[in-house]
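Hi F.,

I've been meaning to write this up properly since the lab meeting, where we talked about keeping a consistent format for the predictions we share between groups. The idea is simple: the sequence comes first, exactly as it goes in, then the structure tokens exactly as they come out, then a line or two of notes. No screenshots and no reformatting. I'm using this chain as the first example so we have something concrete to point to.
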Amino acid sequence: MDPKDIALVALYLRRRRRRRRSIWVHPTVQRRYDHGEYHRLVSELRLDEVRFQQYFRLNRTEFDELLLKVVPLITKTDTSFRSAISPGERLAICLRYLATGDSFRTIAFSYRVGHSTVAGIVSEVSRAIWDCLVAEVMPVPTKDDWREIAAEFSQRWQFPNCVGSIDGKRVQIQAPNNTGSQFFNYKGTFSIVLLAVVDAKYCFRLIDVGNYGRASDGGTLANSAFGRALQDGTLSLPADFVLPAAEDLGPLPHVFVADEAFPLRRNLMRPFPGIHPPGRKRTFNYRLSRARLVVEDTFGILAAQWRMYHRVLGVSPDNAEACVKATCVLHNFIRRMRPTLPQSEPQDGTSALNNIRRAGSNNATQEAIQVREKFATYFSA
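Output, unedited:
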């Protein structure tokens, strides 16, 4: 074939691929203001406090206050072609995704917007929620904050000198492209890891999100900024303190409590090994399990509130990380806005003793072993 003919055929095929849009905006989207869920259903739900809270997980006061905080970051400018989606509707779309975990296409049909528009809104608004709330509801604890947390753990869970409960939660995501087995975890799913430090009142104090799902809880801790600060002694923890009526044991450090997947460190206590350790060791495991259950209860509250944790998130790891961080600060935001929120009753920790999980490496120092022994002696006395 002549080269000119080949060029003409290629040009013809290229022009055929550039199909013009049959419509600029679909008719169903054009009727968003008349029939969209935000402009019809949400307006009606504002008349019913209970149903509004069931729909968004936030009551009307909390929704409006959150909207005031994020408006500067999520407001878009109208153009000559179309009107921008309002900040209130953008926040509603994001909260509805976090509350249900429904697909972007399902939410797009309900709100009468494009599904790619929903994807962009969820990503942007989740990041805006984190940026606006983190300094207010999850600031980095100071030395006085650690003392206050320790006093609450001692009062509610009878574990003195405890400044937090640590655990990791795996958030399922779709297998990302070209990542091999990095996100594939021991449960046979693809995930990212949420590592959290929780206080005695079920609030997140420090979180680290986004580590590969294949990493163990101990490995996630070692790779996190919190783990490095704990190892380096730069967390501003209070000085060692003598436990009540235990002057003979000397000053003991302030510690975090964790399960068997974490290493034993001077400031990080894990249970003694074995399902039924004898005597004083079992007593220590019992006390530690009661305090450690706080973080597991917090994860349970988080997943019950934000149902996206019951789904496989069909988003990129970066967007999944943004959604997880948004739900964590929203969890603290809700508990701060509702000071009368009921607290869980202290548990006996027996089930945790019988539910031994994967054990992590335990290359503990002699100092860490001695600290755990002193706590065991204190509890058994």
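Notes:
The CA atoms of residues 65 and 337 lie 10 Å apart.
The two ends are 96 Å apart (CA to CA).

If this format works for you, I'll send the rest the same way.

G.
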